[in-house]
């Protein structure tokens, strides 16, 4: 049995997603929801090509984004032009989450640090206070 895991949701069978796709389809941001590969059809990718991806084990948009172009070219029936079109459509649907080192350093520069007032306790906490749900 294949298991597909997201940060906030989990499912165990591709059929479960097909039976109720609205339960797994989220927005364009990567908020932990699973977006099925069928979403590519709305961006000009044929159902046949989507089926080829699914046979190769790539069933989600995030899966397409995380699979290298070289690996997608090994999928039987996908040409370089098709792979480029699939990768472009997937990146439009859901951001891959990759950022440059410069952008990361700019984000880290504005991180707010909260101290407990005790250096030993701060060190015990790993330098930060974590919110628990």
TrEMBL record:
GO terms for cellular component: condensed nuclear chromosome. The keyword rRNA-binding does not apply. GO terms for biological process: chromosome organization involved in meiotic cell cycle; DNA recombinase assembly; DNA strand invasion; mitotic recombination; reciprocal meiotic recombination. Keywords: DNA-binding. GO terms for molecular function: ATP-dependent activity, acting on DNA; DNA strand exchange activity; double-stranded DNA binding; nucleotide binding; single-stranded DNA binding. It comes from the Eukaryota. This is Rad51 DNA repair and recombination protein. It comes from Paramicrosporidium saccamoebae.
């Amino acid at each position: 049995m294949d298991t597909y895991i997201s940060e906030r949701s989990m499912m165990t069978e591709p059929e479960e997603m097909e039976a109720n796709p609205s339960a797994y389809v989220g927005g364009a941001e990567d908020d932990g929801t699973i977006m099925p590969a069928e979403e590519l059809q709305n961006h000009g990718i044929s159902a046949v090509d989507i089926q080829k991806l699914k046979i190769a084990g790539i069933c989600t948009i995030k899966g397409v984004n995380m699979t290298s172009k070289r690996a997608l070219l090994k999928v039987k029936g996908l040409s370089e032009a098709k792979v480029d079109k699939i990768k472009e459509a997937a990146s439009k649907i859901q951001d891959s989450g990759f950022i440059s080192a410069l952008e990361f350093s700019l984000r880290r520069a504005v991180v707010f640090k909260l101290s407990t007032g005790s250096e030993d306790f701060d060190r015990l906490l790993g330098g930060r206070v974590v919110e628990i749900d």
